[in-house]
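sorry to bug you again but im stuck and you know this stuff better than me. theres a chain ive been looking at and ive put its sequence and its fold in token form underneath. id like you to explain what the token line says about the fold, in plain words if possible. anything you notice is useful, everything is just below.
___
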Amino acid sequence: MGCLFMKNARMLYIEDDFQFADLIKKYLEKADFEVDIVDDSIAALNMIKEKDYDLVLTDLNLEKLNGNQVVEMVKKHNPAIKVALFTCSKDQFDELQALKTGADDYIRKETSFEILVARLKRLINENHHRHFVSQLSSELEKITLNVKDRVTTKNGEMVSLTKLEFDLLKLFLENKNVLLSRRDIYENIWHTSLESADIDLRNIDSHIKNLRKKLDISAIVSIRSVGYRWHE
């Protein structure tokens, strides 16, 4: 994804397989994360209270507290901290339960390192924009988004958008001149992994068509067989 990644984002990785955890730590540090690792879920919660983490990555099957319990405790302490489950489980019930509990993502350990990094950076970017960006705009299209109040104007006049349309427009304005695949768009807007969903990604085309029509947008350029780019 093309959002500006906040380098040195602070992450706590909870994993009882030390060798695997150390390997992941080294990879993530190369991707500009600051990573602490811990194998004890109770100790992890104490660390979260003592240090200002941006993200918690946790295994599901842990002693003392499992991953879902960690999610609950972290969100109770600070809802702004992103929490992702990182597990070998392919059980869709486990994934559904994690998301219902409040996990921000559910990532399988068989996932490639490149995808793991991309999804973790997306979570960090969500927090970064939520805290620091109150307004997005396009000079080319004369569009302004008030992110906090979810108000959209075109040529100074307010335009009513659905929640989905607003979120799509926000995603494009956050990623100007960045190629977004349909998969990127789906996972950013619906906040879940494509593997767990039964969706025809071509439906995204109709949503974007409606957005273009409603705001008379020409900046959203279709990239055949791949996705879309906001060209500005």
